[in-house]
Amino acid sequence: RVFQSAALRGFAEHPFPSVLSDRVKKIGAPTVLNRVLTDTAGFLLDTAGPLRGKLIDTLIAEGPTLDVLLANPEALRRHVAENVVTTYHPCGTCRMGAATDPASVVDGSGKVRGMENLRVADSSVFPDIPRNNINLPVIMLAERMADLIAKETGGA
Fold first, then answer.
1. Mapped to the 3 state alphabet, what secondary structure does 90-148 carry?
2. Within this chain, do residues 45 and 98 fall inside the same structural domain, yes or no?
3. Are residues 12 and 79 in the same domain?
4. Which listed residue (89, 112, 122, 124) is catalytic?
5. Contact by Cβ (8 Å): 112, 118
6. What is the mean pLDDT of residues 57-69?
7. Of 28, 2, 79, 61, nearest to 53 (Cα)?
8. Residue where one domain finishes, among candidates 83, 104, 132
9. Mean pLDDT (the chain, rounded)
10. CB atoms inside a 10 Å sphere around CB 123
11. Bridge partner residues of 112 (DSSP)
12. 89 noted as active-site residue
């Protein structure tokens, strides 16, 4: 059980299954009331101990707790089937990799194999799908690709 390991205990104090529910969508709308509510909830969630767990269980998490899901394989399967969705960060469709990698489309400088003067410099070259928002990795990739192109073409 990953969440019960000593290595994660200090980082994941009260893990819960997350879903993009109607409640989460509603509280995510940019309104003055939501700002007050989320600021207050954020302050309360920064407190330690049972209060945090109670707040998560009653205000944030919907459905069965993680403990219930881990104890019941059928409930876990059903929860995953009903709640796992894309995070709308498309990437990995034009894999970057070594020339010996049959799944790679571009080399380490973004050049498309078998084509001249064509590069890919966006998240599609990611060989693996990140678990979080891809904004910063895309910016870093674009900066690196721009440097490589400038160096190759004699640009500044």
1. CCCCCCECCCCCCCCCECCCCEECCCCCCECCCHHHCCCCCCCCCHHHHHHHHHHHHHH
2. no
3. yes
4. 89
5. yes
6. 75
7. 61
8. 83
9. 79
10. 20
11. 106
12. yes
Query: Which one, of 13, 144, 118, 17, lies nearest residue 77 by Cα?
Result: 17
Domains identified in the chain, total number: 2
103 and 122 both lie in a single domain: yes
The whole-number pLDDT of residue 20 equals 64
Q: Please, is 63 exposed, middle or buried when counting C-beta atoms within 10 Å of its C-beta (0-12, 13-18, 19+)?
A: middle
Same domain, 60 and 97: no
Q: Do 91 and 124 touch, CB atoms closer than 8 A?
A: yes
Q: Using CA atoms, how far apart are residues 52 and 31, in angstroms rounded to an integer?
A: 24
pLDDT above 70: residue 106: yes
Residue 154, helix vs strand vs coil? coil
Q: Retrieve residue 152's tokens.
A: 């190759």
Give the closest residue to 76 by CA, choosing from 94, 57, 63, 92: 63
Query: What Å distances lie between residue 144 and 110, 134, 139, 149, CA to CA?
Result: 10, 15, 9, 9
Give the Cα-Cα-Cα angle 112, 116, 122 (nearest 5 degrees). 35
What is the pTM for the complete model shown?
0.43
Structural domain containing residue 78: 2-83
The answer on 107 and 77 residing in a single domain is no
Residues recorded for the chain: 156
Listed residue (39, 76, 45) closest to 59, CA to CA: 45
